[in-house]
C-alpha cells in the first residue's frame, strides 16, 4: 500500500538566502494571556470580514480586527465554561445565509460552533472520543467542516444542521492521532489527512455525496442521521518518517510537513485500477530551520502564492510556493520573539502575517511598501 519515489525525480530544494523580494516589519505585539496560543486564522470566506482573525488558547476563543497602521482591535471573546478546556484549533465557517461562525475544538473533544454575530454558542458537536487537533472549512460549501482527532478519525460535520455526516476511520484509516486535514480547493469530493502514523491519506467522498446533500435537508434529530463510515482512502503516502502535523492542497499537489525542518511539495500519482496504491513524485522542498518539534502549522494567502511558517525559536519563514526552485521571500525575526510559533496566518493578499506563540503572544508583521 505504501508509495515509492521514482529514481531521477529528485526534489528541487529552495535556498535559505532571502530574496529580499518583500520586506516585512513588526507593527504590533499583543500579550493575550499566559496560556499558549495554538491557532490563529483570518476570515477568507467573506470580503466584508477579510480583516478579522481569530485565535485560540486555553479555554478562550478571541476575535480581532486588523486595522490600518498596525492596530489590532479586540472585537469579542468567548470563554468556555470548562476552565480545563484547551482549544487547539479554530476555523471560520458560515450559516446558510452567510452569517459568520467560528468552529473551535481541543482537548475535550467537543466542537463548539460560535455565532460571531451575537456572541453565542450556536451548536456543540459531541462525537469524537478524544481531543481535536484541527478543524478545516470547505471553502466551496462553508457550512461543511472537517475535524481531525486523537481518536484516529476524521469527521465531516454540517454546521447548519449539527449532523455528523461521515467518519473517515476503520480498516484503512489512520493508526494514531490525526493531526491535520484539508479539503481539496476545487474537487469537492476529495480530502487529505495526516498524523502520528507518519502517513498522508487521500480520501474520496464521491460515493457518499448523497449523504452530504441529505444532511442539509434533514429535519429529524441529528443523532438519527445515518452517519456513514468511510473505511478506505484512495491513496496512502509515506513521504515522512515521523509525525506529519500539517498538510495542505496546492492544486492537485500536496504540501506536508513533519519534524524534519522542511515543507515537502509532492504529487500523488494514482493508479485508477487499484485504490490506495500509486506512487509519489516529490517536487520541491522548502527548508525551515529549527522546525523540529511537532504541532507547528504553516499557512498561505488566499491564492496560495506564499506560505508562512514559524519555528521553535520564534522566527518566520515566508516561501514563494509557485516558483521553481522555491524562493524564500523573507525571513522574519525580532529580538523579543523567542517563543515557539505554533501557527501563522497570512492575510488575504499576503500583506499581513500574524503569528501566535507558546508564550501567549500574537505578533503582527506588515509588508513594507517599496517606493
Descriptive overview:
The protein has one helix and 30 strands. With about 375 residues, it is mainly beta. The protein has a five-stranded mixed beta sheet with strand order 1-23-22-21-20, with no helix packed on it. The model has no long low-confidence stretch (mean pLDDT about 95).
Mean pLDDT comes to 95
Distance between the termini: 54 Å
In DSSP terms, counting alpha (H) and pi (I) runs of 4 or more, how many helices?
Answer: 1
Number of strands: 30
Overall form: globular
Classify the secondary structure makeup into a structural class. mainly beta
Q: Nearest-angstrom radius of gyration?
A: 20 Å
Low-confidence stretches: none
Query: Percent of residues in beta strands?
Result: over 45%
**Helix content bin:** under 10%
Question: Numbering strands along the chain, what is their spatial order in the largest sheet?
Answer: 1-23-22-21-20
Major β-sheet annotation: 5 strands, mixed
Write the layout of secondary structure elements.
Blueprint: E1 12-13, E2 24-31, E3 37-42, E4 52-57, E5 60-66, E6 72-79, E7 87-94, E8 100-106, E9 111-115, E10 120-125, E11 132-137, E12 144-149, E13 154-158, E14 163-168, E15 178-183, E16 190-195, E17 200-204, H1 209-217, E18 228-230, E19 235-237, E20 246-250, E21 253-257, E22 262-270, E23 278-287, E24 299-300, E25 306-310, E26 316-320, E27 327-332, E28 341-346, E29 352-357, E30 361-367
Parallel strand pairs: 1-23, 14-18
Antiparallel strand pairs: 2-30, 3-4, 4-5, 5-6, 7-8, 8-9, 9-10, 11-12, 12-13, 13-14, 15-16, 16-17, 17-19, 20-21, 21-22, 22-23, 24-25, 25-26, 26-27, 28-29, 29-30
Amino acid at each position: 500500500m505504501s508509495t515509492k519515489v521514482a529514481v531521477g525525480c529528485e526534489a528541487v530544494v529552495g535556498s535559505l538566502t532571502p530574496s529580499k523580494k518583500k520586506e516585512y516589519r513588526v507593527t504590533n505585539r499583543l500579550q493575550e494571556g499566559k496560556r499558549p496560543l495554538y491557532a490563529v486564522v483570518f476570515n477568507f470566506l467573506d470580503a466584508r470580514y477579510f480583516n478579522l482573525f481569530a485565535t485560540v488558547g486555553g479555554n478562550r476563543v478571541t476575535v480581532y480586527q486588523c486595522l490600518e497602521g498596525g492596530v489590532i482591535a479586540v472585537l469579542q471573546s468567548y470563554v468556555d465554561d470548562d476552565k480545563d478546556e484547551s482549544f487547539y484549533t479554530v476555523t471560520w465557517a458560515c450559516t446558510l445565509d452567510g452569517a459568520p461562525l467560528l468552529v473551535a475544538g481541543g482537548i475535550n473533544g467537543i466542537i463548539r460552533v460560535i455565532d460571531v454575530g451575537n456572541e453565542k454558542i450556536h451548536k456543540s458537536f459531541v462525537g469524537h472520543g478524544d481531543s481535536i487537533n484541527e478543524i478545516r472549512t470547505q471553502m466551496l460549501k462553508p457550512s461543511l467542516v472537517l475535524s481531525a482527532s486523537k481518536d484516529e478519525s476524521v469527521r465531516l460535520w454540517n454546521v447548519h444542521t449539527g449532523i455528523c455526516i461521515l467518519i473517515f476511520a476503520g480498516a484503512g484509516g489512520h493508526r494514531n492521532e490525526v493531526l491535520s486535514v484539508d479539503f481539496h480547493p476545487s474537487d469537492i469530493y476529495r480530502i487529505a489527512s495526516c498524523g502520528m502514523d507518519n502517513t498522508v491519506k487521500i480520501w474520496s467522498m464521491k460515493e457518499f455525496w448523497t449523504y452530504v446533500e441529505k444532511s442539509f435537508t434533514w429535519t429529524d434529530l441529528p443523532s438519527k442521521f445515518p452517519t456513514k463510515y468511510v473505511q478506505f482512502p484512495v491513496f496512502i503516502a509515506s513521504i515522512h518518517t515521523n509525525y506529519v502535523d500539517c498538510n495542505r492542497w496546492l492544486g492537485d499537489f500536496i504540501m506536508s510537513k513533519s519534524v524534519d525542518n522542511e515543507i515537502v511539495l509532492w504529487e500523488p500519482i494514482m493508479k485508477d485500477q487499484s485504490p490506495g496504491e500509486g506512487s509519489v513524485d516529490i517536487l520541491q522542498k522548502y527548508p525551515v530551520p529549527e522546525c523540529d518539534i511537532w504541532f507547528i502549522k504553516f499557512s498561505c494567502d488566499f491564492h496560495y502564492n506564499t506560505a508562512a511558517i514559524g519555528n521553535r525559536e520564534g522566527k518566520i519563514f515566508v516561501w514563494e510556493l509557485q516558483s521553481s526552485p522555491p524562493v524564500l521571500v523573507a525571513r522574519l525575526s525580532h529580538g523579543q520573539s523567542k517563543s515557539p510559533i505554533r501557527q501563522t496566518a497570512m492575510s488575504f493578499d499576503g500583506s499581513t502575517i500574524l503569528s501566535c506563540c507558546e508564550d501567549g503572544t500574537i505578533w503582527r508583521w506588515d509588508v513594507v511598501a517599496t517606493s
